[in-house]
Amino acid sequence: MVVVHHTFTKRRLVPAPALTRGRRRDWNERFAKMTSTPARRFTVGVIGAGRVGAVLAARLRAAGHEVVAAAGESDATRERIAALLPDVPRRKPTDVARACDLLLLTVPDDMLPNVVSVLSASGAIRAGQLVVHTSGRHGLAVLAPAVAVGAEPLALHPAMTFTGTAVDLERLDGCVFGVTAGAAQRALAEQLVADLGGRTTWVPEECRTLYHAALAHGANHLVTLVAEASELLAAAGVDDPARTLRPLLTAALDNALANGDAALTGPIVRGDVETVRGHLAEVTRHAPHVLASYVALARATLGRVVTDGRLLPIRGAKLRSVLDAAEDVAPTAGDAVVVRSESPGPRQPGQ
Ligand SMILES: NC(=O)c1ccc[n+]([C@@H]2O[C@H](COP(=O)([O-])OP(=O)(O)OC[C@H]3O[C@@H](n4cnc5c(N)ncnc54)[C@H](OP(=O)(O)O)[C@@H]3O)[C@@H](O)[C@H]2O)c1
Question: Which one of 107, 120, 215 would you pick to mutate in the ligand 1 pocket, going by the greatest count of ligand atoms within 8 A of its CB?
Fold first, then answer.
């Protein structure tokens, strides 16, 4: 690293003449060695080489860690191992745990407590081993059986939706990881997230489920919202709903992320009662299964614009009575049945 040393003379920045560049560079190299810990490289085992496990292990491998074994039975998991982790042997979970010093547990959330308990009780997880899971909902508590045998726990959740293919590898660049870690594991957590190409945000143990609810509400319900908007456009005769929605929704998302509630436009914030009444009638006629979520989101939007003062309460009350009347005839969200005339297309990956 070339470092230019400066001194101030009459408020002007000039290069310092006294020190030779060679001596200055040597000192900086020595200083860097004194202050930075060399990155640790692990032998990695992955239990559950599913959408997330196979991709994270592949990315860790690319960063110089050695992936020594992976577990999983289904055809989909076997195919992912072959595609993303070529030459990595498939082993049963206890053998995977025994073979590595960083154990990646990427099983479904509801399986995680049992997997940790069984592996810890069987002696497959050992003292000093780093045990990492990627669940958004769980924090460190679920890893308590592993901690009890002396393992180091990390909860490291990528705020991303995965396809389980090579497409995801690049999406990890700049992806934020919600991390819960004890003081002793924080530096290591940051190193692993950096190796994965991501950035760390710290999530307190007690906020883990709320953190995950926020992401699910934003990302998963967004998929439902877009699907419903597409259905309404198709019912209105628009031949390519995605082409119509993409520029609009992209702009709305960008504006909302930049400006929050101030990004809102449309009939609710304008107080256009008759427009909302018309929407409700047409949605009821053509897509009654969409009515419950339209009303629920209109109510939430209305509450926010009245609270922050952009809509007069009297106007808000008129809108609320229109929504109340529509809700009386709407099927409840849980009862709403989607009837499609065409194939719904591929399933979206969950989060
Ligand atoms: N998908 C996402 O977009 C996403 C994003 C962020 C975080 N996450 C989190 O990442 C974790 C994994 O999710 P995923 O979507 O990758 O799941 P997934 O695609 O369903 O893969 C789950 C993996 O776990 C294995 N497995 C299931 N039950 C098991 C058990 N009892 N013992 C051992 N292995 C078992 C499965 O093997 P078989 O295939 O043989 O059944 C499969 O390889 C979850 O905690 C999830 O919340 C997911």
Answer: 107
Region 43-203: CATH code: 3.40.50.720
User: Which residues have CB under 6 Å of ligand 1?
Assistant: 47-53, 71-74, 76-77, 93, 106-109, 111, 115, 134-136, 157-158, 160-162, 164, 349-351
Q: Where are the domains of the chain?
A: 6-35, 43-203, 212-335
Evaluate whether 151 touches 143 at the Cβ level (below 8 Å): yes
Q: What is the pTM of this model?
A: 0.84
Q: Judge whether 329 and 284 are in contact, CB under 8 Å.
A: yes
pLDDT in tens, 211-250: 999 999 999 999 999 999 999 999 999 999 999 999 999 9
Q: Of 215, 228, 106, 224, whose CA–CA distance to 161 is shortest?
A: 215
CA 337 from centroid of its chain's CA atoms: 29
Say how many Å lie between the CA of residue 107 and the centre of ligand 1: 4
The full 3-state SS of 117-167, as one line of letters, equals HHHHHCCCCCCCCEEEECCCCCCCHHHHHHHHCCCEEEEEEECCCCCCCCH
CA of 52 from ligand 1 middle (Å) equals 7
Question: Rounded to the nearest whole angstrom, what is the distance from the C-alpha of residue 68 to the centroid of ligand 1?
Answer: 19
| Residue whose pair of structure tokens reads 């032998």 in the numeric block | 43
Q: What does the alpha-carbon distance between residue 86 and residue 80 come to, in Å, rounded to a whole number?
A: 9
Q: Where are the beta strands (DSSP E) in 72-117?
A: 102-105
Q: What is the 108 CA–ligand 1 centroid distance (Å)?
A: 4
Calculate how far, in angstroms, residue 134's C-alpha sits from the geometric centre of ligand 1: 9
Residue 351: pLDDT band with limits 50, 70, 90: very low
